[in-house]
Amino acid sequence: MGIEDQGARSLATLARNTLESKIDPLLQDQVMVPEMIDLRNAAIVQWPQSTPTHLPIHWSLVNTSLGKALLRDGVRAVKMLIALGVDANSMLPCGYRISGVAALTAAGKVIEYLLGVPEIRIDEKVNAYGHLEETAMVLAYKTSQLQIYGQFLAANGGIIPARTMLYICAIEPHATLISVIALNADVRKSIRTKHPVNHNTPLHAAVLNEDEQMLTTILELGRKTTTIINSFAVFLNATNSDGQTPLMLAVEHKMRDAVTTLLEQEGIEVNARAAGGRTALWYAARVLDVDLCNTLRHFGADEGNPAPGRQMWTTKGTPFNALLEAYDQAHEEFTHNKNRLEANANFERAKNKIERIGWLLDSIGSNPNLPDHYTLRVPRNTVLENFPEWQDIFT
């Protein structure tokens, strides 16, 4: 242990002992009541409002010891604060984690120290606001701090971690992916990483990107990095925690160009089953996309019925059950907005699509006699309000 570390640790111990001697009696006498914030749910924390400041940055960066330390890359102060008990993954009141602020302020020495802290989570969402999972690595790249980005990459064994990789594939232009991979990334492992919660892969993310070249780039990288164990077909049909393949996700979000691109790939499983027995055709029916239904049929989509003897495990029924869900949504929107001029027109359009898809499903042999696990409704026997044409499909 160096002299600097010994000094910091001694000062930290003295500070902690002093604070405990002052605060513990107050807590015991209930003069002070501690208020705990669960930072694991930081997205729902109501952060304090910014107080007036003459500087064009958040007050928590100029009025707190931690903020000041990050602004000046003061690694000794950060070490001391963490030794005092500050969580290395905690957020400042500005709504960014310590690692995120360090990336934004180019605090390279602090980053180097944090990467050596056993508890540090380098692939956490660092921004408390919004639904996008920005990570410290994303921020480092966005602010052209390539050296800091490289520090994170090296600390993760050259693999771009899942949240960072999925953010890039879903949001950024494809040129960004090419650039970050060029920074000595392990391509084969990076494009096959899975989100720690929903298990989406970079290919799942790429189908949602408005830049169509992102999907093309990911597919090319997947094809070039195949092995006997990790074949291209395995890469192409990887499933998330809900059993969805990238094709199903593209259909669900009506990404038609992505759907066509995937269907043209050798080894694509157009009839794979997700949780509840849902197929790509099931999702196309659910989002009432007539063109996608026809496209899937052209590429060999089956009728979406469960395999013989597996009806009891098919909790979401067949594509006919998906049409019932679509009707429920359309009818609820119509009821809620019926005083608006466009409400009736929207409802009529939805019913027309349901009817057209229903005739298609009937013609290919989809089973209308299976209940779904949740509502227990059988499509053939269900009477839909303001929609007598539904029964005409089965007569």
Protein model, in words:
This protein has 395 residues and is mainly α. Among the domains are: 57-157, Serine Threonine Protein Phosphatase 5, Tetratricopeptide repeat; 274-394. 50% of the residues lie in helices and 0% in strands. The protein has 21 helices and no strands. The chain has helices spanning 3-28, 59-62, 65-71, 75-83, 98-104, 108-114, 136-142, 146-155, 162-171, 174-181, 187-190, 202-206, 212-224, 232-236, 246-252, 256-263, 280-286, 290-298, 319-336, 341-364, 389-392. Helix 3 (65-71) packs antiparallel against helix 4 (75-83), helix 15 (246-252) runs parallel beside helix 17 (280-286) and helix 17 packs antiparallel against helix 18. The longest helix has 26 residues, at 3-28. The radius of gyration is 27 Å and the shape is elongated. The N and C termini lie far apart (83 Å). It holds the Pfam family Ank_2. ANK repeats lie at residues 242-275. This is Ankyrin repeat-containing domain protein. It comes from Aspergillus leporis. Keywords: ANK repeat, Repeat.
Top keywords for this entry?
Ankyrin_rpt, 21 helices, 395 residues, single chain, mainly alpha, Serine Threonine Protein Phosphatase 5, Tetratricopeptide repeat, ANK repeat, elongated
How would you briefly describe this protein structure?
Keywords: ANK repeat, Repeat. The chain has helices at 3-28, 59-62, 65-71, 75-83, 98-104, 108-114, 136-142, 146-155, 162-171, 174-181, 187-190, 202-206, 212-224, 232-236, 246-252, 256-263, 280-286, 290-298, 319-336, 341-364, 389-392.
